[in-house]
Design goal:
Length: about 140
């Protein structure tokens, strides 16, 4: 991919705020303010992009569930088979004697991913779930 042309612009900012920002970016490991600001802008655009139910997106769904709960694993697997075109990959980790972690990578629209994420998370025996969405639509 070719390097996009760069534009320089000046920003007026309160001294206290830029000190806090500089501490934050040093802690986060950025070498320059420019890269930190670019990442903030991209994060904001992605955040807005994933508010649009029709936006093409990728999701990472993590589920922690009770391994002993009857039929739960069949429900979880069955629903994923019903939507196999949206499931990119699934990783299963046996956390301890009782608990499993399943990490499911999904692709589709934001609305579809949220819907399946909610359906999977709401099965009885799922103890914790989190869904992280990203879209590349705004940040090519
Ligand atoms: Ni397991």
């Amino acid at each position: 991919m070719s390097q996009p042309s760069l534009i320089r612009f000046g920003v007026s900012i309160e001294q206290d705020l830029i000190k806090k920002f500089d501490r934050h970016i040093a802690h986060a490991g950025y070498d320059t303010r420019s890269e930190a600001i670019r990442d903030l802008i991209r994060a904001r655009l992605v955040e807005e992009g994933v508010q649009d139910p029709g936006a093409a997106a990728t999701g990472v769904l993590s589920l922690v569930y009770d391994h002993h709960k009857r039929e739960l694993e069949e429900h979880l697997t069955g629903l994923q088979h019903d939507h196999h075109e949206m499931i990119i990959a699934t990783t299963h980790v046996h956390l301890d004697h009782h608990n499993c972690l399943e990490v499911i990578l999904l692709k589709g629209t934001v609305g579809e991913i949220r819907e399946i994420g909610s359906a999977l998370a709401s099965f009885k025996g799922v103890k914790h779930s989190s869904l992280s969405l990203t879209t590349t639509r705004e940040i090519h």
